[in-house]
Amino acid sequence: MVQREGRAERRVATLSDVAQRAGVSLATASKALNGRSEVAPATRQRVIAAAEEISFTPNQLARSLVENRTRTVGLLTSDLEGRFVLPILIGAEDAFGAGRVDVFLCDARGDAVRERHHLNALLERRVDGIIVVGRQTDPRPSLGHELPVPVVYVYAPSDDPSDLSLTPDNRAGGRLSVEHLIACGRSRIAYISGDRSYVAARDRVEGALGALDDAGLELVGEVMYSEWSEHWGRDAAAMLLTKHPEIDGIVCGSDQIARGAIDTLRDLRRAVPDDVVVIGFDNWEILATNSRPALTTIDANMQELGRTAAQRIFEAIDGEVTEQGIHYQPVRLVIRGSTIERR
């Protein structure tokens, strides 16, 4: 104890103090507090208890130097609106754990020069890994393999098959949409999509048509392609119902399109879901839950994408074999009032 001005000041506890109190070596105490697997559970608990008893706080800077890690990860995105990057970021942070890893978010705004600038800045900060998030599921240019840290591409896959990419299974989502409408007793189903140039649009249509074919059904009319907007949903639904009034189900390529289609059905006095059921895609909650009725939709599980990306970064940092290629992640059906008939 050090005496100063009549008061005793407590010396800051060290890792050696923890080891001595727990009756283990310095190396074992370090491994136990860092969660290393080679420490027996009973020993780990004894070390943790000793650390708590003497109020030991690990020196994060010293630990980082020893492990040659900064406990930081970069998240590089082009999704300025945050429609996809925010839930992905939330999922990644959940997996990283509060206080264990810091995430630096950089928005390249779809500009290759700005993206390179942000990438260099992240590398200068010595981040342990990088998650790259795109604004659509079309392939994007790879950052290359000269980077000193692991990289995982999320939503927009890399155009290099030797990279690891995680993206929603849009074909499965399209199939799930039609299967749900068929389960609701509908057989005269139409499809309103967004921009045909998007891979997501084509994949969702492909899945939907496959489900119709498996059920021995044909799509009513042609797939209606245009923009991802409520305005297009209203116009397309009006055209379809004028030409094919027998339609009893509409699959929409996005929640925005579905909201527009519901508006038109209301204007035409076609009750949703009694006369016509409608399903969207994306589970954009502010749209889906405020629709009248609330919108059944396909959720791309963005938070789960973020969690999985974080886990892959952890595995690569720990030296585990990293997967390659595009991995299509499961989507899920969220049922609301637009497909549930009122009794």
- What is the strand arrangement across the widest sheet? 4-3-5-6-7-12
What Rg do the Cα atoms give? 26 Å
One letter per element, helices H and strands E, the order comes to: EEHHHHEHEHEEEHEHHEHEHEHEE
Structural class, from helix and strand content? alpha/beta
Helix percent reads 40-55%
At a glance:
The protein is of the alpha/beta class and 343 residues long. It has helices at residues 15-22, 26-33, 41-53, 60-67, 85-96, 112-124, 170-183, 199-214, 230-243, 255-267, 285-288, 302-317, and strands at 2-4, 7-9, 72-77, 102-107, 129-133, 151-154, 164-168, 189-192, 249-252, 277-281, 296-299, 325-329, 332-334. It has 3 domains: 2-58, 434 Repressor (Amino-terminal Domain) (Orthogonal Bundle); 69-168 and 302-329, Response regulator (Rossmann fold), CATH 3.40.50; 170-300, Rossmann fold, CATH 3.40.50.2300.
